[in-house]
Structure to design on (766 residues):
């Protein structure tokens, strides 16, 4: 099958060999667990427990705070220690529920019991996905139930599984392709029940030939499902780039994938859907890659959500030297954190510890107008022009140059030979413009 | 557990390419032309090249030192300017020509406009045009080959004498230090394209459009156009050199893909106009610096259409269709 892709993008070294052959290891939490209420895009969840309460594995401890929101479930049984503001990976504070693990794993009723999805109605499936607190597990954390609720189900002709995993280092989806392909296929079948006219496509980058082979075998003979190899290129897993590579349709910032007849879900999310629908297990665990040249034994761990990141690093043998940088997520879009004392969330795909901080002391020099940012921009913008408008705070010109279309992938900064902080400035300007618009709308 | 890590906004990795490595690649690409120039025109060509490079680097250093600005000579862009100026000079030039040209290129054309990336016109070419206008006799003193002073292929072509293509390819004819050997320039061009420093569309649009416009202007004037004549225009003179190394200059040419093609066609049009309609024998240098001035306009008109953004007009049509 021909390899598909989009125009633009960059080719960083993928460094996946560090952890791609490490089979997933199941890890239980030793210390207390912290469940943040903002593990998704949209309104934060509202805690429904109070300190001193006993909670069970799979019990909802925070309810959805609105339509675009998701509930949070406890991943262990134990006692609620506190409901208070806690630091998140982005440096913000958010309401969080801390649970003392009693290591008994007493589950709520029905947890893990099989269920036949073929007898469920569409509304029932959507309700299950919503109540299981499933969100996009690739990084953005958009509530999956909202994604799966479109105006007209029959107009959706593609359900795309995002198995690109284009960020360097991360291997959690790849391991799941090898270890749980059946669950992903079931997850896809469940989604295809919602969209009767859709074809299910697994989009996988061609640096994962084993993943492509396993899934191709699983979907062989299926009329509605197929595997589409994609070129290894960052940001191939960006929603807009993925849709364009697979369907040739292009959407902009004002459109949703559904406008192009697509629903896009991450590979890990498909498995979460399968767990929720066929086993009555809400989203309480995920696979996290712990990697980087400062980690002794790079590994993939199946961990309860809420576990402290320090426990994962310890399980991976700890650091072999003091890392200069610790990143939650991949090196292109992940968040650098100053401490490992942070909880794993639904969207934490990777903990990356780097011996050397490549960006330390990189002073920007004058732009030489090489145009490399233009050719790298997957959105076909002119980062050079956007940065100029943002630098002189001309936000009108910034919008006119389509600054709001930026997806913040960081390709422009990655390629810039003058080391200019293009994507950083553009992202800040974009946030400012969006905040001003929100203010204007509120008035 | 209170270790501290560096915090910064993503991305946390960078490509290895820097301004310096790009300039180094351009220097490597220019070397074949310089070497052929030295072989054909002798040690004097080498001395001129060295003087020009030294003058450029020294001018930048002294300027920044006096104005207490950060010293930027290590980015090697002054070396590139010096080399490009040198390959555009005749080996017969007196020693002060490359020294004056280099100082003019760096101080007047580059630094006064704000340094690297900010200059409006190509420094080396503007310096060459300045020298050409100020010292026209010295600057048009063709060097002799085998002891005989010979006109350049383009000058000979005006008199109906066409230089053989083999001479044009190897560079065994009169001309500036770097412009004579088409093969050497093409080696440099292939290297630059392979290293993705320039896009092939930039030199190709200049060369192809020059060929087309030369043909058109000659036919309009009722002159016959032969293949030999076209070859002299394409390979003789400074066209190849200009197309590869100067019409692809980062600072002074459009960054947009279509803009680069439009720009190339502008250069081709003006070159053909000067060579065939005007009185000059050469024209590439002027064509490039005139087109440099059009760069911001071309760039504005050819801004790429963002991903998934539909043009307003098309959008309205689609909405009308939907209704």
């Amino acid at each position: 099958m021909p390899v598909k892709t989009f125009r633009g993008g960059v080719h960083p070294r993928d460094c996946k060999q560090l952890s791609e052959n490490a089979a997933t290891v199941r890890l239980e939490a030793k210390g207390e667990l912290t469940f943040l209420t903002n593990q998704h895009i949209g309104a934060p969840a509202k805690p429904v427990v109070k300190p001193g309460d006993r909670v069970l594995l799979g019990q909802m401890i925070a309810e959805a705070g609105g339509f675009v929101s998701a509930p949070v479930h406890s991943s262990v049984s134990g006692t609620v220690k506190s409901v208070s503001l806690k630091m998140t990976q982005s440096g913000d504070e958010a309401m969080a529920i801390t649970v003392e693990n009693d290591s008994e794993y007493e589950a709520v009723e029905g947890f893990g019991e099989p269920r036949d999805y073929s007898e469920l109605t569409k509304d029932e499936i959507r309700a299950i996905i919503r109540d299981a607190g499933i969100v996009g597990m690739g990084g953005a954390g958009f509530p999956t139930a909202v994604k799966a609720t479109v105006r007209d189900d029959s107009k959706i002709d593609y359900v795309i599984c995002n198995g690109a995993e284009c960020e360097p280092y991360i291997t959690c989806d790849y391991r799941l392709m090898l270890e749980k392909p059946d669950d992903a296929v079931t997850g896809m079948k469940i989604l295809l029940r919602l969209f009767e006219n859709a074809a299910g496509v697994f989009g996988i980058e061609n640096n994962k030939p084993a993943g492509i082979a396993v899934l191709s075998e699983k979907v062989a003979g299926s009329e509605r499902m197929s595997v589409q190899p994609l070129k290894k290129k960052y940001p191939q897993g960006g929603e807009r780039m993925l849709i364009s590579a697979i369907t040739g349709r292009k959407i902009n910032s004002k459109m949703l994938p559904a406008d192009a007849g697509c629903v896009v879900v991450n590979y890990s999310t498909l498995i979460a859907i399968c767990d929720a629908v066929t086993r009555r297990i809400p989203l309480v665990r995920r696979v996290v890659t712990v990697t980087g040249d400062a980690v002794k034994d790079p590994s993939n761990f199946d961990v309860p959500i809420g576990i402290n990141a320090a426990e994962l690093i310890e399980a991976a043998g700890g650091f072999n030297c003091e890392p200069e940088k610790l990143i939650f997520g991949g090196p292109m879009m992940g968040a650098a954190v100053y401490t490992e004392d942070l909880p794993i969330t639904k969207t934490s795909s990777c903990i990356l510890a780097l011996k050397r901080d490549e960006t330390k002391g990189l002073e920007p020099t004058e732009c030489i107008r090489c145009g490399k940012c233009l050719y790298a921009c997957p959105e076909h913008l002119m980062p050079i022009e956007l940065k100029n408008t943002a630098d002189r705070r001309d936000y009108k010109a910034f919008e006119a140059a389509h600054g709001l279309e930026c997806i913040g992938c960081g390709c422009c900064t990655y390629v810039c030979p003058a080391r200019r902080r293009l994507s950083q400035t553009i992202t800040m300007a974009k946030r400012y413009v969006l905040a001003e618009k929100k203010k204007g709308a509120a008035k | 557990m209170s270790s501290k890590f560096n915090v910064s906004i993503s991305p946390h990795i960078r490509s290895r390419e820097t301004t310096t490595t790009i300039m180094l690649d351009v220097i490597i690409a220019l070397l074949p032309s310089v070497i052929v120039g030295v072989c054909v025109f002798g040690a004097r060509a080498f001395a001129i090249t060295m003087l020009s490079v030294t003058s450029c680097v020294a001018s930048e250093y002294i300027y920044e030192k006096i104005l207490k600005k950060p010293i930027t000579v290590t980015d090697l862009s002054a070396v590139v300017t010096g080399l490009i100026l040198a390959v555009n000079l005749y080996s017969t030039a007196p020693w002060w020509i490359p020294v004056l040209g280099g100082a003019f290129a760096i101080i007047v054309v580059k630094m006064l406009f704000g340094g690297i990336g900010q200059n409006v016109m190509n420094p080396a070419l503007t310096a060459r045009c300045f020298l050409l206008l100020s010292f026209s006799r010295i600057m048009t003193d063709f060097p002799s080959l085998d002891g005989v002073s010979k006109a350049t292929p383009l000058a000979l072509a005006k008199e109906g004498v066409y230089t053989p293509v083999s001479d044009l390819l190897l560079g065994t004819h009169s001309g500036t230090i770097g412009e004579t050997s088409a093969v050497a320039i093409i080696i440099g061009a292939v290297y630059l394209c392979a290293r993705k420093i320039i896009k092939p569309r930039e030199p190709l649009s200049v060369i192809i459009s020059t060929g087309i416009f030369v043909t058109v202007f000659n036919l309009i004037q009722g002159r016959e156009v032969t293949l030999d004549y076209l070859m002299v225009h394409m390979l003789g003179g400074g066209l190849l050199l200009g197309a590869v190394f100067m019409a692809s200059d980062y600072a002074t040419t459009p960054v947009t893909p279509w803009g680069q093609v439009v720009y190339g066609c502008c250069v081709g049009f003006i070159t053909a106009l000067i060579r065939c309609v005007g009185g000059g024998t050469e024209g590439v240098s002027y064509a490039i610096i005139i087109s440099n001035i059009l760069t911001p306009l071309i760039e504005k008109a050819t801004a790429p259409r963002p991903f998934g953004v539909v043009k307003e007009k098309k959008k309205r049509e689609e909405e009308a269709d939907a209704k």
Observations:
- Chain B touches chain A at residues 1-15, 17-19, 21-22, 72, 75, 77, 114-118, 250-251, 255-257, 303-310 (CB under 8 Å).
- The beta strands of chain B are 144-145, 148-149.
- Residues 36 and 107 of chain B are 29 Å apart (CA to CA).
- The first strand of chain B starts at residue 144 and ends at 145.
